[in-house]
Amino acid sequence: MGDMVKGNIAMGEAAIRAGMHIYCGYPITPSSEVMEYLSWRAQEAGRQFIQAANEGEAMYMVYGAASVGSRVLTASSGLGISLKQEGVTYMAAADYPAVMINVCRYGDGLGSLESGQTDYKRETRGGGNGDYRNIVLSPSTVQEAVDLVYLAFDLSEKYRNIVVILTEGALGQMMEDCEYPPVKEVPFYDWAFDGKYTHGPYPSQMAVDLHAKGMKNNEKRALITENEQRWEAVGVEDAEYVLFAYGIPGRVVLGIVDELRKKGEKVGIIRPISLWPFPQKAFDSINKNVKGFISIETADSGQMLEDVALYAKKKGFGNVPCYFISSPPGVPKSKYVLENFEAIKAGKVKEVF
Amino acid sequence: MAKGKKAPEKILRQVPFCPGCGHGIIVRLVMECIEELGYNDNVLIGKPVGCASLLDNNLAVDTFTGAHGRNGASMTTIKRLKPDMLVVSYQGDGDCYNIGFSETMNAAYRNEKFTVIAVNNGNFGMTGGQMAWTSMPGQKTSTSVNGRNVELSGMPIRVPEMIAHSFDTAYVARGALFTPAEINKTKSYIKKAMQAQIDGVGHSLVEVLSPCPTNWGLTPLASMERIVNELVPYFPLGEIKNKGGK
Asked: Which residues on B lie below 8 Å from A92 (Cβ)?
């Protein structure tokens, strides 16, 4: 059994262990403990830490740090991640790696201090101008958050792509058992600026062959889509209804599905762990006679629901109705989800797609 | 007899600025200083958005493509992670003082140990000569067609004086290019600014008053005369701060 650790602190420690060289950020509830922890822990571990003047400045610091080949982390929440988006798209244009943690708070604009999943679309669609995708991973336990942060730095480097850890206030703030992986000491990447002009004019954003770059981008995204789909599935092979939920709601729905299956109900769950790429391969195991797909999110309108419907169509389930259970904000209550599920089964709720 | 001087080896070709523009001279001075200080193979230049983005592919040194105005932030982490590398942020005044005001001031505020070269031509050159915070009272630009009204838009900004007097910076100066003597003085400022970085004293910034004949609607010669008559009285030349070496 590991130590009881708060989610945000656990993710900070996981970054140190993954070989992070530098953290650049600006505090915002409910993510602040990530940087509070790293403000002293980075120094203790011989790494660097900068508190920026705002979230945007932090992201341009990340951009600079990535350009010299360091492993770099930033963390924020909701609107703070909005402020970073110019830097994010510049990094996408340069094929620079970094890890960005979004401890999501519910709502538009200033939002709220409640936990939520209202940032799904922004994270999975890129967020800034242009046409790029970030790899998006979403944990449902503190241990999984540690494991995904540890993995995120490697994926980020492998594909030269930003990896977003999309989690929620509830997970960032709760304490759970967790075991840490070993500490890695990682050298600076050798493709980066070294002051010697070793790699020539790369990355020049003004003078590249745009068509060739676009095709290369597509190849990279196809490779990520093929290789990096992650999910947990229970009971989908014989399910009449398959529930989709990620993060903390994913954990709640896993419990509901377990309970219902013990009562003999044919219900299953797919808990996406990678949100981009969406785990479309998970559909391959679903009962071909399934009656409905249901997305449960702590968001007002179905954000992941659109991906469920999209990939249902792609995987030959185009006529299966897709329903939405909206449970904003916070952590969905089992009773609330069950009542809504019963209403869907009884035909009292109209499908969205 | 006049002596020819070999161009710095890290300048690959003539940078395609407009005729009479000051950027070409300033780039040459920057590259001469880097070479003379022995940093040709341990240097990174932060390139901005604006006219100086034309540096792209014309210098044989590592050249970072900054987001518009954000080099103050990006150069911060580059220098902290590569403390032995000479880090030079080459920016226009629109990039450095308008859109990048926050990043420029915050880097100076933290006394980040890199060097800023701020090319002040009093307008947004690349996008067609719109008003900048450095445009003079009454100056006609494409967004102040009747002349800059300072009651509505403020007086021209003097960032070097702000960061010299308010923050714990190492070296701040303002130079110009209207005579060979001024060019030589500007070069000495740039070199001292880089030396302050190399010695670890702190943040350094050199502003250079630079002609923009295309957008000013003047000949190159008249542009230089405007700098002498209109700009220098408001933007005084010389060293503003020099904390000295270690």
From this structure: none
Please tell me which residue of chain A has the smallest CA distance to B75.
A64
A213: closest CA of chain B, how far (Å) = 17
Contact criterion met (CB below 8 Å) for A304 and A120: yes
List all residues 6 or more positions away from A350 whose beta carbon is below 8 Å from its beta carbon.
Answer: none
Q: Which residue of A has its CA nearest to B105?
A: A53
Residues 6 or more apart whose CB falls under 8 angstroms from that of A60 comprise A87, B66, B67, B70, B71, B72, B73, B74, B103
Question: What span, in angstroms and rounded, lies between the C-alpha atoms of A41 and A37?
Answer: 6
For A193, the closest of B64, B67, B71 (CB atoms) is B64
CB-based contacts of B2: which residues, under 8 Å, 6+ apart? none
Residue in A70, A90, A204 closest to B81 by CB: A70
Mean pLDDT by 10 residues, chain B (246 residues): 81 91 97 98 96 88 95 98 98 97 98 98 95 97 96 97 97 98 98 98 98 97 98 98 82
Sequence-ordered list of residues with C-beta below 8 angstroms from that of A76, at least 6 positions apart, any chain: A25, A26, A28, A31, A55, A58, A83, A84, A100, A101, A102, A103
Identify which of B42, B53, B70 has the shortest CB distance to residue A60. Answer: B70
Question: Backbone phi, then psi, for A199, in 5-degree steps?
Answer: -105, 15
Alpha carbon distances (Å) from A73 to A184, A219, A239, A324, B142: 15, 26, 40, 34, 42
Q: Does B60 touch chain A (CB under 8 A)?
A: yes
- CA B50 to chain centroid, in Å, comes to 12
Beta bridge partners, B43, equal B86
Tokens 């040709």 appear where?
B40
CA pair distance A167, A116, nearest whole angstrom: 9
Q: Which fold has domain B23-240?
A: Rossmann fold (3.40.50)
Question: Average pLDDT per run of 10 along chain A, which is 353 residues long?
Answer: 91 98 98 98 98 98 98 97 97 96 96 95 96 97 98 98 98 97 96 94 70 93 98 98 98 97 98 98 98 97 97 97 96 96 97 97
Residue A331 contacts B, CB cutoff 8 Å: no
Residue B188 and residue B167 in contact, taking contact as beta carbons nearer than 8 Å: no
Show residues of chain B in contact with A196, CB under 8 Å.
Answer: 41-42, 62
Set out the domains of chain A in order of their start, with CATH numbers. 3-227 (3.40.50.970), 231-345 (3.40.50.920)
Chain B residues with CB-CB distance to A53 below 8 A: 102, 106
Residues of A in contact with B77 (CB under 8 A): 22, 24, 50, 61-62, 64-65, 68, 70, 72
Euclidean distance between CA atoms A110 and A80, whole angstroms: 9
Residue-wise pLDDT tens digits, A95-109: 999 999 999 999 999
